[in-house]
Amino acid sequence: MRGIRKFGVFTAAAALTAACTSGGSPGAPTASAAPAAAGIHAIKHVVVIMQENRSFDSYFGTYPGADGIPAGVCVPDPAHGGCVKPFHDSNDRNTGGPHGATNATADVNGGAMSGFVAQAEGGRKGCTDPNNPACSTGTATTDVMGYHDGSDLPNYWAYAKNYVLQDHMFEPNASWSLPAHLFLVSEWSAYCTQHDNPSSCTNALQNPGLPPDFRSGRKKAVQPAGPPIYAWTDLTYLLHKDQVPWGYYVMTGSEPDCEDATALTCSPVRQNAKTPGIWNPLPYFDTVKADHQEGNIQSLDAFYSAARSGTLPAVSWISPAGQVSEHPPGLVSAGQSYTTNLIDTIMKGPDWDSTAIFLTWDDWGGFYDHLTPRSVDANGYGLRVPGLVISPYAKQGYIDHQTLSFDAFDKFIEDDFLHGERLDPATDGRPDPRPDVRENASQLGDLSSDFDFTQKPRAPLLLPVDPRTDLVAPH
């Protein structure tokens, strides 16, 4: 086993997280008495940590007991002939493949799950807009059939062993990052023509209203000159109406993609809590502006402070910066260290005993997954991604086989804090023409089954931010 620091690849992640690790509690809280609150309401704080671009099989395809890579898989390789079998890839830096709606359809290939290599090889080389999911990273070879294991991902696998691993978590949409983040906070991806008029919105999976910096190469939707219009109803509208505090925390740094042709050398696009975009869509929502909730969109430093002081809001969403997002070509090790630091900070804080952490990845990133996506409506589900539940009430070593999607996060939040109220055009006071109420899909499982609320809250599992792994640093 080789330590990451030995190769010097942890420097960037350490620089980004060092400021957040200082001043933490010197010790970990111990298990406490059983909660007075009953059932789901023992959870006072939900934290959704969203990472980038990994399939379930690429991270947990060999995890014992999970619905992982089946024997005999070999995906056609049209460029070289024959086929490519899944292989252990110990490289810290991966490239992945194109991951737009058309790529998702081709990867799935009618349920054969056989298009991954062809799509990666067919990605346009030297693309001028890597944020366009029709593009790949421009490398000569593909690693979409590669997978990591517990020697590469010791902390992620430790969370699975000690808490809950979800092996049927699907991204809510068969498309790329922006729709995934829109579904995360609003259960829909739409294109609107009028502010404050939800009825002006139409279903738009691949091309919702786009931030101005990301319109290059996208010609399927006519975009307005200014910022996009997100007039449909999002979850913060219901939270604000019921006086439920929330926060959306954005890590200062670069966005998970950049605008140069090659991701290794491009000038990054800077982001912070005041820069709306693909990974920070809430500032564009009319509801957020009308309710004067822009101040709830804050820096990641504010989240660390709240976690340490025991002042976490009821609902937190966390968006990473590029270097720690795990979005290719970001390092796997940097992402794992960043998420571990987040989770350790929560565990050391006063709110741990009443918190549920949901960790997932926004889309499959072009990486192989063997499981055919479930169909709930015209928008999805998309391909399978990893999902973890980390909480003092989470079942230990439990593998959740329910069909899940990011819709389940909103369903849990609504059941916990909003008395089961849904983002339903018939009842939420702002009717929009969304195709359905995603939280009520018959296929969707219930995250409350991942918990045992009769147990005393378990003591935290603090892990090293810089674990020893078998990952090989890039040259």
UniProtKB/TrEMBL annotation:
Biased composition (Basic and acidic residues): 422-439
Keyword annotations from UniProtKB, A to Z: Hydrolase, Signal, Virulence
UniProt-listed Pfam families: Phosphoesterase
Family annotation (InterPro entries): Alkaline_phosphatase_core_sf (IPR017850), Phosphoesterase (IPR007312)
Gene3D superfamilies: Alkaline Phosphatase, subunit A
GO molecular function ontology, one term from the record: phosphoric ester hydrolase activity
Annotated signal peptide: 1-27
Region of interest (Disordered), residue spans: 422-475
Protein's recorded name: Phospholipase
Species of provenance: Streptacidiphilus pinicola
